[in-house]
Amino acid sequence: MQNFSFHNPCRIEFGHDSIAKISTLIPPQARVLLLYGGGSIHRNGVYDQVCTALKDHHWQAFSGIEANPEYETLMQAVRFGREQQLDYILAVGGGSVIDGAKFIAAAIPHTGDCWLIVGNRTPLLSALPIGVVLTLPATGSESNFAAVISRRETNDKLSFKNPLVFPSFAILDPSCTLSLPPQQIGNGIVDAFVHTTEQYLTYPCDARVQDRLAEGILQTLIEVGPITLNDPNDYAARANMMWAANQALFGLVGVGQAQDWATHAMGHELTILYGLDHARTLAIILPALWRYRFAAKQAKLTQMGRRVWQLHGDDISVAQQAIAATEQFFIAMGLPTRLSDYQIDAAEAADRVAEQLIRHNRLQLGEKTDLTPEDCRAILLTTN
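and the corresponding structure tokens:
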């Protein structure tokens, strides 16, 4: 096991009616900027619950944060927050709203070029405190210190990480997810699945606890995924999905482990170039990457095949079957695994993604930093 340092200061309130706890979790003197995306929180009652919890606070709302939050929209919120002298961020939504909240929390007190926050190209001296009400389980952003921001005018989708943007608390009420459409549930399951494998399926590091955590998350997603799609009112399944998605990127799975993240690097480029949902890019890339890197990943693929998929046979056969089982699971969750399924030419996409990776200086990807843009091009060529 590799050396590691772990700290997560986010308080999690999980379960029925936990939104009401906002009233005591946010300091009474705070001036709150409430952030959300579209109108779904008005339709499912979450907005009303949040308003009730904030009735004794000063608060103002900013809506319209997109999936794959846009820098231009977020800067409107930054200017609004500054003008209104708001000093506490409450994000109500999924990973996109939460990622946007992290950027806004860092940008409001920032005195330089706010775009440089993205990509960790400028130091952060402070950030506003953040609270979260999670409505779409997928990214784990509600309790970690990473965010991904898009800037369409320059075709950039970049991440940043800073401990200053750890949420102070996260409300996880599974009943808030009961009205989600199947596409968003399928996306969330696959997103959480790939987050887990990016940290787990590299090469053996003798991190036995972390491996078992990862395998438990994967097995849970495999078990509850079909239930959440077929029976939206099954609270127990939604609760287990929500917690699995949180734990996939809470931080513990990856400590002491080699981590990959090449699938995400390529996926971000596909999203900004073609507008595909983030999880759908991951479903396309991950099986293809595993096949391309089969020799380097065989040991962990075999381990996953035996422990997670309960497969039998020789090591190579089990590893191959594990890839096939994962791909079929993605398809069963409603996510195709070929670019051609979206009428996207793989050769064109491969060239454009490789160019983007070079432009963003993503020249050495993967757990061994030996995956080049040309390798990524070769991986995408197999997804036609």
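(Above: one complete record from the training split.) The chain has a mean pLDDT of 96.
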